[in-house]
């Protein structure tokens, strides 16, 4: 078959065929059209006219690039945000991408995304038993990726509000027994748990608390770091690298960086345990105790003093509730906890006790 010019050939039947690009297929490959003539010049003229017909201004229009797949979009988003957010936040988002978003949306092109894809994804995740709160986090991340990538937004389905976490509270008797037990212990860990009981610290904040964070002039601690164990960026790329590492970083939110006054009743214990600058409160050394170790020791501690096991976060939960029940205003408690909104304190941590509910009902009968 003889060829002449741009994409023009002579067929076996003697005619000249001129091909021209007129679009792209769904997989991104170029879709060609063809015109035929008995002479080369006529085929060339027909090719030119066909190209002009595809353009309003008389010049061949550039073919649109194929829409990227979400696999590519996710890769680009990860590269953009890698060093702009906290390390712990990045690996949380990366986990959501790898477990949920990439397997489902990865092969899909951006221009193929429809509302039905979102609805089917939601149904799938519900069948997998994920909580509404976690599904909400997944969809919120997907929405943010669409917005940051300047892609057409898809209306996210409404989800049922997550139910309260249902953390249990220590009773007043358990609280008093635990306090008395801790005050009799000589170790730094017991003092740290006692401190947590009366300040509402998170476990990561307690882990990262050092003695140079203490201000003796104002009798207060400055909360300015938190400790977490997170996965390494690429554990398989380097031989013998552990899958996770301990991360010491700034607290959860800007409002979590705060000053917490120390109750004067704890000053005698503080003087007994106070270490040099640079050492950690829980260990008395320059090495911190990571949160999972704290939780293990905390479980053993409750068993030693004969108290039922409650999640470590129940210390913070109980602290907030007892403060409100004793007449503290909500704003003060929110600032002590490091919440940016009072509503967070009210909706999550503060619950009316059974006795208060009973008093409320008894007042109606008077």
Which sequence of SSEs, written as H and E, runs from N to C? EEEHHHHHHHHEEEEEHHHHHH
CATH class of the largest domain: Mainly Alpha
* Assembly of the depicted chains: single chain
Provide the helix percentage. 40-55%
**Class of secondary structure makeup:** alpha+beta
**Can you tell me the overall shape?**
elongated
Low confidence ranges: none
Strand content: 5-15%
The count of β-strands is 8
**Number of separate structural domains:** 3
Over all CA atoms, what is the radius of gyration?
32 Å
Number of contiguous helices: 14
Q: Mean of residue pLDDT?
A: 84
Could you tell me how far the N terminus lies from the C terminus, measured between alpha carbons in angstroms? 106 Å
- Biggest pleated sheet: 3 strands, antiparallel
Give the strand order of the largest sheet, numbering strands 1, 2, ... along the chain. 1-2-3
CATH topology of the largest domain: hpI Integrase, Chain A
The CATH architecture of the largest domain comes to Orthogonal Bundle
How would you describe the overall organization of this protein?
The protein is an alpha+beta fold. The protein has three domains: 1-66, no CATH class; 70-148, Tyrosine recombinase, N-terminal domain (DNA polymerase, domain 1); 172-310, hpI Integrase, Chain A (Orthogonal Bundle), CATH 1.10.443. Helix content is 45%, strand content 11%. It has 14 helices and eight strands. The chain has helices spanning 40-53, 70-81, 87-105, 115-127, 132-148, 172-183, 188-197, 203-207, 267-273, 291-304, 313-325, 330-337, 342-349, 354-364; strands spanning 8-10, 16-24, 30-37, 214-215, 220-223, 226-231, 244-249, 258-261. A hairpin with a 5-residue loop joins β1 and β2. α2 (70-81) runs antiparallel to α3 and α12 packs across α13 (342-349). The longest helix has 19 residues, at 87-105. The radius of gyration is 32 Å and the shape is elongated. The mean pLDDT is 84.
């Amino acid at each position: 078959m003889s060829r002449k010019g741009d994409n023009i050939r002579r067929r076996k039947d003697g005619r000249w065929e001129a091909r021209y690009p007129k679009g792209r297929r769904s997989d991104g490959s170029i879709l060609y059209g063809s015109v035929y003539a008995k002479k080369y010049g006529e085929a060339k003229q027909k090719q030119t006219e066909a190209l002009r017909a595809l353009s309003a201004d008389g010049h061949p229009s550039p073919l649109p690039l194929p829409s990227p797949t979400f696999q590519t979009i996710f890769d680009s988003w990860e590269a953009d945000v890698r060093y702009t957010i906290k390390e712990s936040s990045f690996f949380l988002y990366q986990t959501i991408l790898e477990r949920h978003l990439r397997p489902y949306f990865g092969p899909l092109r951006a221009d193929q995304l429809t509302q039905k894809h979102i609805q089917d994804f939601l149904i799938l995740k519900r069948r997998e038993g994920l909580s509404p709160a976690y599904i909400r986090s997944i969809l919120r991340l997907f929405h943010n990726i669409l917005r940051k990538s300047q892609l057409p937004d898809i209306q996210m389905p409404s989800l049922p509000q997550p139910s309260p976490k249902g953390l249990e509270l220590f009773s007043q008797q358990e609280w008093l027994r635990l306090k008395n037990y801790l005050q009799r212990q000589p170790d730094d860990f017991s003092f740290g748990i006692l401190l947590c009981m009366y300040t509402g610290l998170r476990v990561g904040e307690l882990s990262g608390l050092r003695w140079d964070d203490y201000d003796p002039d104002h009798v207060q601690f400055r909360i300015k770091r938190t400790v977490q164990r997170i996965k390494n960026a690429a554990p398989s790329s380097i031989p013998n690298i552990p899958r996770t590492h301990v991360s010491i970083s700034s607290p959860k939110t800007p409002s979590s960086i705060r000053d917490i006054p120390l109750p004067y009743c704890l000053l005698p214990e503080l003087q007994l345990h106070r270490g040099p600058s640079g050492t950690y409160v829980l260990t008395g050394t320059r090495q911190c105790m990571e949160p999972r170790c704290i939780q293990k020791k905390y479980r053993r501690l409750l068993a030693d003093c004969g108290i039922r096991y409650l999640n470590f976060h129940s210390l913070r939960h109980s602290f907030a509730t007892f403060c409100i029940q004793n007449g503290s205003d909500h704003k003060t408690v929110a600032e002590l906890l490091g919440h940016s909104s009072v509503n967070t304190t009210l909706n999550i941590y503060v619950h009316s006790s059974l006795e208060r509910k009973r008093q409320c009902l008894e007042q109606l009968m008077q």
